[in-house]
Design a protein that fits this description.
With 468 residues, the protein is an all-alpha fold. It folds into two domains: 2-248, no CATH class; 271-454, Hypothetical protein af1432. It is 68% helix and 1% strand. The chain has helices at 2-23, 28-51, 60-74, 89-98, 104-121, 132-135, 139-150, 160-186, 190-218, 229-270, 272-292, 299-308, 318-321, 329-336, 338-349, 351-361, 383-397, 409-418, 426-438, 446-454; strands at 78-80, 83-85. The protein has a two-stranded antiparallel ribbon.
């Protein structure tokens, strides 16, 4: 259940970041790559329109209807992570088989521009991003070129094998552009790109025969094309429901982040040392997470726990918290309650912060089972709590306190190693040691920590077939 919740959390983060990204102006690199791709596509599309003969002589009203229908279908978008997808094959196949073949590439791009108009007017898409309508239209060229060479006539006059070959060429062109774009802009691992593309191919394979069958029936009676409307409307309802659920969840996550920031402000106003210590622990935890290659799915809970691991100290009397000497056994027992107090505070918020509260409770459990408050041992201790505990201890040793001076880095590392396998998880000690001896850690301001808490991985976008 925990794994599923963190995966869903990451997906929702990526959706939110993708929405924000689409509303922003393109950066220089994206603008350059997209602009050059759009210009090159236009040059090729115009060449196709000029040099490929038009053997179909399609009614202009049918062409207009196909164009408008394409634009409407492109507005049906399923968001998933940093991607979005549309049931595009239900529009592309009729245009390819029934429309004026030489002009199909230009019509596809025009439909993409029309589909973006409502988003630009609502300011949910930046006006520069209409260029994507051209740069993302490369995929249609493969099918057009195959039909132009082997079967430029109307449906029924061309062998089925030619259409299968055209579909294969369409997918190959789409894959080529996807890989090229990724190499120029996103630079994701090729395996990840291929996995995402495989999902779109699976749905294209399902939708293409349906669209083809409707096209065959529409050769004599174009009104049969309206049979595409019911499945498109169904997809629209599903996509709107999905969008609304994402919007509500994103609002909830913004409330979580706001709560974390509020608690951070309370900690800072209550105890400056604890606030600065928490920010430093966030920096170290993030560096150790990179070293351990902790996946993005688990990062936000870890960062929240690092920032809030001492939030329960708000409930500890100031005379104990700021005592300029070692605590008595009785005072230490009171101090130990801060983990339970922290969990109690976060449990009252619930949801994501309720799960963070479970980590906060365990941030002083020891690897050998002699920690507090529950005496958990080894793998019984939540992994995030083990990371925070080790980073917390290192930062505490290397910080000045009212009753002692900070230890040098080498001495603190030696102390961590000496307690590896008893107080700390040995793997985490190894990672912390490597980080603090080989890296220069930044010191975050409050605003920078806020950015970390609100952050998410860089999104990726793809227009493809429906992915549920």
């Amino acid at each position: 259940m925990r794994r599923r919740s963190t995966v869903m959390l990451l997906a929702e983060q990526l959706v939110g970041e993708a929405r924000q990204r689409r509303a922003r102006e393109m950066d220089r690199r994206e603008r350059t790559v997209t602009g050059l791709s759009a210009l090159l596509f236009l040059a090729v599309a115009v060449a196709v329109a000029v040099f490929v003969p038009d053997e179909r002589h399609v009614d202009p009203l049918l062409t207009l209807g196909l164009l408008v229908g394409y634009a409407l279908i492109l507005q049906v978008r399923f968001e998933f992570g940093g991607f979005y997808a549309s049931p595009e094959q239900l529009a592309f196949v009729p245009l390819l088989l029934l429309g004026p073949l030489p002009y199909v590439p230009l019509l596809v791009a025009a439909a993409g521009v029309l589909a973006h108009v409502p988003e630009v007017m609502r300011n949910s898409w930046h006006r520069q991003r209409w260029l994507n309508a051209f740069s993302d239209s490369w995929s249609n060229l493969g099918g057009v070129m195959v039909l132009a060479a082997l079967g430029p006539g109307p449906v029924g006059s061309v062998a089925l094998a030619v259409y299968v070959l055209a579909f294969a060429a369409h997918l190959l062109t789409d894959l080529t552009w996807t890989v090229v774009r990724n190499g120029l802009l996103d630079r994701l691992p090729l395996a990840e790109v291929l996995r995402g593309f495989a999902g779109t191919v699976r749905v294209d394979v399902i939708l293409t025969p349906l669209a083809f069958a409707i096209c065959v029936a529409s050769v004599e009676q174009p009104l049969y094309l309206l049979a595409i409307a019911p499945p498109v409307w169904l997809f629209h309802l599903f996509s709107e429901d999905r969008r609304e659920r994402y919007s509500k969840t994103l609002e909830l996550h913004r409330a979580y982040r706001g709560t974390v920031m509020l608690l951070s402000d309370v900690i800072e106003s209550d105890d400056h040392y604890t606030a600065q210590h928490s920010r430093s622990v966030v920096d170290l935890v993030n560096a150790v997470a990179d070293e351990l290659r902790i996946p993005d799915n688990d990062r936000q809970e870890l960062e929240f726990a690092a920032m809030l691991h001492d939030v329960g100290k708000i409930a500890i009397p100031k005379e104990i918290l700021n005592k300029p000497a070692a605590l008595t056994p009785g005072e230490f027992e009171v101090m130990k309650t801060h983990t339970i107090e922290g969990q109690f505070m976060l449990d009252r918020v619930g949801g994501l912060l309720g799960r963070v509260g479970e980590i906060v409770r365990s941030c002083h459990e020891r690897w050998d089972g002699t920690g507090y408050p529950d005496g958990l041992k080894g793998a019984e201790i939540p992994f995030a709590a083990r990371v925070v505990f080790c980073c917390d201890a290192y930062n505490a040793m290397t910080s000045d306190r009212v009753y002692r001076r900070a230890l040098p880095r080498q001495a603190a590392v030696k102390e961590l190693v000496a307690n590896s396998g008893s107080q700390f998880d040995p793997n985490i000690v190894e990672a912390v040691t490597k980080v603090v001896t080989e890296r220069i850690l930044p010191r975050s301001s409050t605003d920078e920590v806020r950015a970390v808490l609100a952050g998410a991985p860089v999104p990726r976008e793809l227009r493809a077939g429906v992915i549920g």
